[in-house]
Design goal:
Structural class: alpha+beta
Number of helices: 9
Largest sheet: 8 strands, antiparallel, barrel
Helix content: 10-25%
Strand content: 25-35%
Oligomer: single chain
Strand order of the largest sheet: 1-2-3-4-5-10-11-12
Number of strands: 16
Amino acid sequence: MASKKYVLLGVLFCLFASVSFAQVSANSYDLRDSSLYPAKRLPQHNEFLQNAYPFPAKPRNQWEVGVKGGLPFGSTDVRYAGPTGGFGLHVRKAVGYVFSLRAEYNWLRMRGLNWQPSDDYINNPAWTANGYVPGTDAVFYNYRTTVNELSLQGVVTLNNIRFHKAKTGFNIYFFGGIAGTMYSTYINALNGSTPYDFNAIVTQFGGPAGFTYKNRKAIKKALKGIMDGSYETKAQQDPGQPTLGGRPFKPSMVLGMGAEYKLNNKFNVALEYKFTAIKTDLLDGQQWQENDLAHPAQTRDFDSYSFLSLGLNYNIGNKAVEPLWWLNPLDYAYSEINAPRHMKLPKPILDDSDGDGVTDQFDLEPNTPKGCPVDTHGVSRDTDGDGVPDCKDKELITPTICQPVDADGVGKCPEPQCCKDIKAMLDSGNYGGPRSKCNIGDLPSITFKGKTVTLSKDGKALLANVADKMRQNPNCKVAVVGYGESSKAAQQLSWDRVNQVITYLIEKEGVSGDRFIFRYAQTGGDENTIDLKDGTGEEGPNTVPAPHPNLRKKK
């Protein structure tokens, strides 16, 4: 039966491989994307980007989780009894591009049934306790085992490193590791509460001589006709064996190989064969050799089991590349050789006698002065076309009307006629404009504290100076400007302060009221400041009614 198992395994691998050697044209990840690197590897990543370290940092890569189902096979003293079933779950993480770690759980159920009878089971209490008499009653060894296995495996993948092709969508891998196996074995010894009459089967086939390989199918069919499949009797256990929950527990070792086929960057399917060697000969509940009845011998060989499965795997993780066993670590190196984006390439050495950046074979001005910017033909730039190169031109853009220029590139522009006319008008004083000559100069600003409208001593001193200037310049008008238009209260406060300044200059300093322009609630200034400006030639009232009399501030 074992030979059929391996034939089936080979056929499945061949079929799987025949449809799976398609190449995947997925692009490599962007090595310059800093979000793909964990914090502990960012220093190396930054050094690589700055060409201070030749090797890029390893990116954060996704985890793989998978579920699988398939056929378990037991390799024991009792023959294989046909397909059963099992399933598994695993999580896998890449350590590098070749090696990864995988934690896996498997639940398996296996059955066995001998088609040849035995009568020397004197040391097997599972049979003798159920009324079978060694040497008199024939039995057919059978079992059903339920296995729970938890393993930690190292996985090696080699064919993702490719020298002459892009990434592959098909991976072959090998794995091995340690496991803990907990199993529970039962045998089918009773039909309800009555022992089976296996002697009738022996008689049916003419005694021991009739149990040949040729008759095995008929014997199995006859056995199935009388056995109920209940597996009600707990099989023999080693009394010194450790248990978990009443079930034997043994350390074990796993080995295997598999093949993965990528469906897309998230999903892949895997066909896998796993072999588990467990240090027990009671996986099938039978450990005694078929010697003579008086001297049965305990076997020295240990049982084992295997699991042929087909699984579906999914990659999880944000801001991470695919699991590294899907990536070709040479992909970036080859792409950089083909189209450099990061490599520091040596500059070509071409003669440039004057050092202006244009090689001699293309330079139309081979003796350009040092430091002079040139155009693409190596000729000194002359932006305004006045014949003086920019590097010597003190007037970089000289209008054509102002040329020719002197040795420094400075031209002499004729005075426009309009300027001549204005100058003549100013000199004559007869140009009909509304504004008279005023030399009052800069005027101060008056600051009020808080929400008051009371002038401070400094404010009064400043206003006395303003009044003196106005007396010395009788042709000048002064605009008194207040700010604050955001609310009715702000508008009224601005009006009160402008009114206070004008009133003070009229009543205390004797300045005529018609020389002021009243402006309040203006924008663009400080609400606590009143600005005084030259208002000569401007239009505006010298008195304005209060905008919100009910909000007026008392002095």
